[in-house]
Amino acid sequence: EYLESVDPRRLARLGEHVRNELAHVFPSFPDPGRGNVSGVQGERYRTNRAVRELLERLAATKPLVLMLDDFHWADTASIDLAGSLLSRPPAAAVLLVLGARPTPGPSRLTNALERALRAGGMARVELHPLTSDEAAALLGLERLDPSTAALYEDSGGNPFYLEQLARSPHQAPPDSPNRDLSVPSVHVPPMVAAAMMEELSLLNSSSRRVLEGASVVGDPFEPELAAAAADVSEEQAIEAIDELLVAELVRPTTVPRRFRFRHPIVRRAVYEAAPGGWRLTAHRRAAEALASRGATAAARAHHIDVSAKVGDAAAVSTLAAAGRQSAQRAPATAARWFTGALRLLPDTAPAGERVELLLANATALAATGRFAPAHEALLESLAMLPEEATARRLELSAMCARVEHLVGRHDQAHARLTAALDGLADAGGPDAVALMIELAGDANFRLDFESGQDWATRAVSAARPLADPGLTAAALALLARALAWGGDAKRGEAVRSEAATLLDALSDDQLAHRLAAAVDLSSAEIYLDRFTEAGVHAQRALAVGRATGQAQLFPGVYAGLGVAWCMLGRLAEAAELLDAATEAARLSGNPQALAWALFCRAFVAFPAGDTRTAIAAAQESLEIATDAGHDVIAARAAAVLGVALLDAGEPARAVEALTGPVGEHFASIPMAWRAYFLELMTRYWLGVGRRADAERAAAGARVSASAVGLRLPTAMAHRAAAAIALDLDDAATAVELALASAGLADDVGAPIEAGLSRTVAGRALAHLGKRDEAVALLQQAAAELGSCGALRYRDAAEQELRQLGRHIHRRTRPGDPNQGGVASLTERELQIARLIVDRKTNAEIAGELFLSKKTIETHVRNMFRKLDANSRVEIARAVERAEPLGR
Q: Is the pTM of this model over 0.90?
């Protein structure tokens, strides 16, 4: 209703893709063309982002409050939207208020709220029962008398219950023999339910029937639909609504010819009190009325699901269509409609029809993380397939194996795939090659790289004679990935080159049939120091996947592309992409995908200087990966978390993050990237004063780099060794190793790594007294790191320059003195003020921002003046008021 009232000019600047998404969510939204949405299930996060942008636009001129009450009854898609807004609030003056019962609700809601509370972007307001004085005020009394005091006790201090009891004409006490105990309690105290029933009993039969019809069609409701459900004329319905308005059982809305129940519990009480058989026919009549209006299948589905008979072919068709309409944005709802269609499907229905419904249901269930029922649906569909349906059987077997991997049944998945391969009549045909590719992926999933290489090699050998370039490219790409992950970079590069030549020659239509080939090739290239090529192939996979509705591979594509862009120095783009990857992974319900996306987000946030995001994302990634047994992700997340915590001045938490078995899991990281994380650990151990551990990490990096023979791992090993040498006062060796590291990083197009190595070399040159050379190198490093958005590392280089007496002339965004308050602070002052909110001392802020303590004190004095504050507490309060939902 609110959107209908908004001046269209306020929304005119929304992009066309945003308007398209919103038109599928809000019926009242101006619709530029409903057919232009990608419709890719794996990109449901786009809808959430469109709503976020809408809220930002609505709040552009004045603050906006969005209140969502009774959120414990929200559907899954709405919970996902709220979770998205909580994790990444609109960049505007928007206050989100959620009202929900404190009893355990949906786990997705509970998890979203807890994350927001931990991150400090949300405040919890506990609503306690009314006191007796408050109850008296609510009832318009100075104080409670004996009768109203009894009502207050019966209500438990709940305002709605108290009002309901007070409006009851008889107010029978709890032990009254006149109380009708057969009245449904609708999850409220029996006394309150009885009071509601007494109120309803005062209605005439016609008004009562219309109210029951309204409870069937929904809340809010239109008189015409309520009349249809109640099986009365529209004139009778209008007359009844007049009585219902007087009785305050329903209330008008801001939209003409639309009314609401006084409270959701009133509607529920009316609905549950209506005769069960009558409700069935009322739902059928409501569905028919909606169909006559041309309503969508999704709008009719609820009524049909409740009222249709088994064997009703039209009902099955409608529910299936509703499932397809809902699948992209609300897969949990889609699963409900597919389940309903399967329930109504007669036993005599063709097996193919049931298999298609089962497959659609399994896809919807898996999209919401309900892998166990999805697995059951796939098994049932496999059991029903006729023997001659070979292609469909192979497709379902592969899907089933993927789900089995997600629920940890790796041996079962492997056995299923090998059995399917053994059962093929043609052991060298396309179907056999496809299964070999699945088996190679299965082995890589279990980190059995040798087995993965064997299966991929068999697939390549079988594919070459078939003259199918797409199939051959898919097998080669997977072999390249297995070789790269297994540390055989020389063979991996040769295979990668052949795979890239074949894949680049494929048309988009051809690639659409082998989309995993582009994903596997991109992954291989990330592990072979080919970040530019990895980005190109990942972007093509996204484009083709969006055009053809293939989303199952997107989580991996997002993460891989984000890492590639990070290594290429495109940190801002990588952060934006990985925010999307994290949202998409949360929606998928796949813990491995979420843990990986969060790690990648932390990986990018740390060099960008976003320490808060780095810590939060790495911590959550570590927890999820540890719980799910994903050692590779856990080890990486722990390394980033430890360094970020140390950098933030929290050494105790940093040590805690890297205790236990996490360190042992570094052996499971593919060799090509093991040196990267061991170099990170070298920095960490030196930071906490444990040189022996640092030396072991540096030695491990050297061994890994030597084994894989790639330039970037070698650069990492050189930088780790340079840090050790500098810590041992061997500055000459440190210079030599750090410059060699920078050169290797330059060779593979990794400017951030090159800048970091030059910073180490600059420090070592300064240690040798070669001031001018040190300054030149550090200035080059600071410029390179700044242009990439690696602000944390740039600040470190500039700190070295300051120690060499060089003044840094970089300007920050000025404040706006005309606005006053927080808006008057400069960018640097606001950065310091936010750290004050985090309760950092001046010394801690100086260390985190690589500034002197005196500089911090100067900025704080300026903030006192601009904010008219007398203490750091007042500064923090001013920032919290200006940024109430976090940053």
A: no
The torsion defined by the Cα of 45, 46, 52 and 58, in degrees rounded to 10, comes to -160
Q: What sign does the dihedral 114-116-120-125 (CA atoms) show?
A: negative
pLDDT of residue 585: 83
Report which DSSP code applies to 42.
G
Look at the alpha carbons of 659, 662, 667, 673 in this order and tell me if their dihedral is positive or negative. negative
* Separation of alpha carbons 729 and 732, rounded Å: 9
Segment 102-161, tens digit of pLDDT: 766 667 778 788 878 877 778 888 888 999 999 999 988 888 888 888 888 878 888 888
Residue 406: how many CB atoms within 10 A of its CB? 23
The parts of the chain modelled with pLDDT lower than 50 are 34-38, 171-186, 885-887
How do beta strands 250-252 and 64-68 pair? Answer: unpaired
**Per-residue pLDDT at 106:** 65
- State residue 323's pLDDT score: 92
How far, in Å, CA of 458 to CA of 475, rounded?
Answer: 9
Long-range contacts of 187-193 (CB under 8 A, 24+ apart): 187/265, 187/268, 188/161, 188/265, 188/269, 189/154, 189/155, 189/156, 189/161, 191/154, 191/165, 192/154, 192/155, 192/161, 192/164, 192/165, 193/269
Q: Are 210 and 244 in contact, with CB atoms under 8 Å apart?
A: yes
Which residues 6+ apart lie within 8 Å of 107 measured at CB?
Answer: none
Question: Positive or negative, the Cα torsion across 760, 765, 768, 771?
Answer: negative
- Environment class of residue 630 by beta-carbon count within 10 Å: exposed (0-12), middle (13-18) or buried (19+)? buried
What is the 3-class SS of 133-158, one letter each residue? Answer: HHHHHHCCCCCCCHHHHHHHHHHCCC
The answer to whether residues 752 and 603 touch, using CB atoms and an 8 Å cutoff, is: no
Three-class SS of residue 66?
A: strand
Q: 3-state DSSP call for residue 96?
A: strand
Residue 685's Cβ-side half-sphere holds a number of Cα atoms within 13 Å equal to 22
| Tokens of residue 150, six digits | 């009894």
Give me the amino acid identity at 500: A
Q: Number of C-alpha atoms within 13 angstroms, CB side, residue 209?
A: 17
For residue 758, give both structure tokens.
């030059």
What confidence score (pLDDT) does residue 539 get?
93
Determine the Cα–Cα distance for residues 521 and 540; give it in Å rounded to an integer.
11
> What distance in Å separates the CA atoms of residue 270 and residue 131, rounded to the nearest whole number?
30
| CA-closest candidate to residue 712, choices 751, 683, 684, 685 | 751
- E-strand ranges in 351-416 read none
Please answer whether residues 378 and 352 qualify as being in contact, where contact means their C-beta atoms are separated by less than 8 angstroms. no
Cis peptide before 63 (omega within 30 of 0): no
Of residues 3, 78, 11, 90, the one with CA closest to residue 52 = 90
Torsions phi, psi for 104 (to 5 deg): -55, 125
DSSP helix/strand/coil, 510: helix
pLDDT in tens, 538-560: 999 988 988 887 766 777 788 88
